[in-house]
């Protein structure tokens, strides 16, 4: 089953558009887990606590690589694949490099970590994205209109009468999406731009980070980005779920579960 089919099935099976982001920040973990193996234990507990509320899991590679914890990231990815094979695994790596190097990054994401999809940066152009497209059953999630304020520095530049992010959206939807495996990143912090991207790309899946800790409005996000069948998005929340427990010593997994269920329900209210 390819990435988009797997994602569509997860939307339906779990009745959820929530993507649970796995960004294990050592300083915010329970003290006993503040080491490389601890972040794997933490992430696996979060995965178990939220798997029935999620349409995707998105580990952020930097939180592991910064600690030299790639083995632990492999362990977390293998755990998701074996325990929850119906939930898409999105590796957030935001890669972008020349084709020969991109070929290695694609192997890292899809082969080493077994990811169903990976985030990539389109700035170096088609030949830097092409090696990922050769993995026809895997997803390629291209940065389009990112959630951060600084995203406007380049993504809003006028290119022939339209902003660059809209050019990226049409390029990916109409030229790069050869076997239907592409998706785009559009921040929940910019609902008007999310609506504009949805109009350009039809039913293409969108990864939408920015609710929760970044303050994006759930109702505006859902109304702007949903497809006609009320799906179409992986709406990501990381810190607001991972660190929902108010104090060290509280059951972080139970708190994460409550936060994930509440976020899923909040999203579903506006679908
Ligand atoms: O590609 C991403 O996932 C991403 C794109 C973007 O535009 N903004 C953004 O915040 N992200 C990621 O989404 C997650 C957001 O985390 P929270 O703000 O804690 O929910 C982080 O892992 C970011 O790296």
UniProtKB/TrEMBL annotation:
Q: Which SMART domains match?
A: OMPdecase
**Cleavable signal peptide:** none
As recorded in UniProt, its EC number(s) are 4.1.1.23
Q: Where is the active site?
A: 94
Q: In which pathway does it act?
A: Pyrimidine metabolism; UMP biosynthesis via de novo pathway; UMP from orotate: step 2/2
Q: Name one Pfam family in it.
A: OMPdecase
Q: Which UniProt keywords are listed? A: Decarboxylase, Lyase, Pyrimidine biosynthesis
Q: Which residues form the Orotidine 5'-phosphate decarboxylase domain?
A: 17-252
* Reactions listed under catalytic activity: orotidine 5'-phosphate + H(+) = UMP + CO2
- GO BP: 'de novo' pyrimidine nucleobase biosynthetic process; 'de novo' UMP biosynthetic process
> Which molecular function terms from Gene Ontology are attached?
orotidine-5'-phosphate decarboxylase activity
Q: Does the keyword Nucleus apply?
A: no
Main EC class the enzyme belongs to: lyase
Instruction: Tell me the HAMAP family matching this sequence.
Output: OMPdecase_type2 (MF_01215)
Q: Which family does it belong to?
A: Belongs to the OMP decarboxylase family. Type 2 subfamily.
This protein is called what? Orotidine 5'-phosphate decarboxylase
Gene that encodes it? pyrF
């Amino acid at each position: 089953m390819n990435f988009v089919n797997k994602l569509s099935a997860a939307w339906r099976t779990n009745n959820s558009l929530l993507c649970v982001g796995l960004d294990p920040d050592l300083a915010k973990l329970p003290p006993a887990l503040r080491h490389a193996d601890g972040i794997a234990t933490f992430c696996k507990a979060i995965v178990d606590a939220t798997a029935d509320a999620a349409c995707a899991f998105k580990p952020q590679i930097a939180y592991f690589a910064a600690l030299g914890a790639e083995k632990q990231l492999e362990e977390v990815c293998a755990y998701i694949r074996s325990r929850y094979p119906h939930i898409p695994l999105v590796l957030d790596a935001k890669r972008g490099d020349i084709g020969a190097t991109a070929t290695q990054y694609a192997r890292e994401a899809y082969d080493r970590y077994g990811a169903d999809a990976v985030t990539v940066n389109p700035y170096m152009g088609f030949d830097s994205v092409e090696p990922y497209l050769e993995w026809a059953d895997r997803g390629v999630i291209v940065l389009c209109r990112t959630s951060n304020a600084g995203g406007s520095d380049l993504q809003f530049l006028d290119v022939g009468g339209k902003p660059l992010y809209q050019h990226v959206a049409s390029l990916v939807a109409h030229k790069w999406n050869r076997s239907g495996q592409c998706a785009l990143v559009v921040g929940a912090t910019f609902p008007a731009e999310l609506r504009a991207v949805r109009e350009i790309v039809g039913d293409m899946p969108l990864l939408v980070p920015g609710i929760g800790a970044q303050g994006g409005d759930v109702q505006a996000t859902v109304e702007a980005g949903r497809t006609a069948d009320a799906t179409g998005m992986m709406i990501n929340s990381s810190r607001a779920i991972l660190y929902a427990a108010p104090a060290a010593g509280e059951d972080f997994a139970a708190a994460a579960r409550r936060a994930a269920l509440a976020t899923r329900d909040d999203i579903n209210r506006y679908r």
